[in-house]
Amino acid sequence: MGHLLRRRKIIMSNTSLSGLVLAAGRGTRMKSDLPKVLHELCGVPMVELVARAMRGAGVEDLAIVVGFGGEKVQSRLGGQYAYVWQHEQHGSGHAVQMAMEWLEGRTGSVIISAGDTPLLGVETFEQLVLAHTTSGARCTVASSIMEDPSGYGRIVRDESGAVIKIVEHKDCTPHQIAIHEINVALYCVEAEDLRRHLPNLKNDNVQKEYYFTDVIEMIASEGGQVFGEIFSDPAVTVGINDRWQLAQADAELRSRVLKRHALNGVTLRNLNSIAIGMDVEIGPETIIEPGTILLGNTKIGSHTVIGPNSVLQDAVVGDHCNIRMSQIVEATIGNHVYVGPFANIRPKTVISDKAKVGNFVELKNTLLGPGAKTPHLSYIGDAVVGPNSNIGAGTITCNYDGFSKHRTVIGANAFVGSNSTLVAPLTIGDEAMTAAGSVITKDVSAGSMAFGRARQETKEGLATEWRKVKIAEKQ
Prior knowledge:
Blueprint: H1 2-13, E1 17-23, E2 40-41, E3 44-45, H2 46-56, E4 61-66, H3 70-77, E5 82-85, H4 92-97, H5 100-103, E6 109-114, H6 122-135, E7 139-145, E8 154-157, E9 163-167, H7 174-177, E10 181-190, H8 191-197, H9 213-221, E11 226-230, H10 243-263, E12 267-268, E13 275-276, E14 281-282, E15 287-288, E16 293-295, E17 299-300, E18 305-306, E19 311-313, E20 316-317, E21 322-323, E22 327-329, E23 332-333, E24 338-339, E25 344-345, E26 350-351, E27 356-368, E28 373-385, E29 390-391, E30 396-398, E31 408-410, E32 415-416, E33 421-423, E34 426-428, E35 433-434, E36 439-440, E37 449-450, H11 462-474
Parallel strand pairs: 1-4, 1-6, 4-5, 7-11, 12-15, 13-16, 14-17, 15-18, 16-19, 17-20, 18-21, 19-22, 20-23, 21-24, 22-25, 23-26, 24-27, 25-27, 26-27, 27-28, 28-31, 29-32, 30-33, 31-34, 32-35, 33-36, 35-37
Antiparallel strand pairs: 2-3, 6-10, 7-10, 8-9
Helix pairs in contact: 1-6, 2-6
């Protein structure tokens, strides 16, 4: 723990730490109209995962280089980042060159990372910056040792072990091909060195591209120290180029998320069937049953059971609740609440403490008061249901007239009989009742009982005669 605190203290003491994420490529192997960096892992675009990890390591000023589908990237990520355009893609060096205006006037260190490396964590960036800070280098390069380095650029060191250049696989000599230390395209460079060397990049290589790695050689050739930090974590080498790699990385990230919750006191039953998003919060002693999916900014309290087979998105659920085989989207659930099975809780719904929502119930934009119950087979939309009121089976609020939505207000301790049809706008007072099977179109005052159905008539023997007629018609 002391080592981690020391690492963070050293990093945070560097107040001039900027970040640049390269995210302009199309990613043709993804076979998608969506920019590669917007494909999601655990519900978060991969480029945002990289940016979040950078910020977690102390980067406050961060820019994203966009190109193919750049408008979509900006729209999805919003104004939390600066954006640099690379309208034509001519290599990694060209991408960083496009950020020259953004780099103008900056001091201190700049982290440069690809936007398609979503498994890079905060610790990775902290280790890189710590190595850069403690070594006093002008540039620090992240590397890894691979048994089969095919396709990767090779780290070339001098006799003293200092990095002198990085050579792309296609440009390697036979001697360089045998090197097993590879470049993982993650750098920490002084801003002034970037401004000085980026204009001098050339594309005299096999691919006719401007390599950012040539900047490393320029720094070393003028006597600047280039430090190579070797990472043992295989995540630093995981870049996403196709849907299979995306699926594998998604599985790894989901496993990390599940592990984090389990270590924080959450019981997970059948790991392979549970999916939990990056931003989900769950309190201790809560149980997540098989087949459950938790998405977005969902927050769940303690001593709660979710599932089996439930989906929650951007939902808030309190303590000591039980959510069974139901869907909850953009709704808030209090404490000691029971929901399900097969309930659909739609946006802007608030279910108060000790309320109950039973099977095949749909709530939309509804406030269900403390202790209120809708046990089964009801639709309650655009409504307020007072404390301890009971909604009988088959009840619906007719909230939409084809043009506008209208509100239904039900007071405290009211009783709505089964198969009641409540035609909004409508108010039912405290302790009022509606008879089963009623169509209620007028307000019901407190303490009153409303009947909205036709008087029953019984015709003796008519059913027998009707059957005789039908049988004769068939003969």
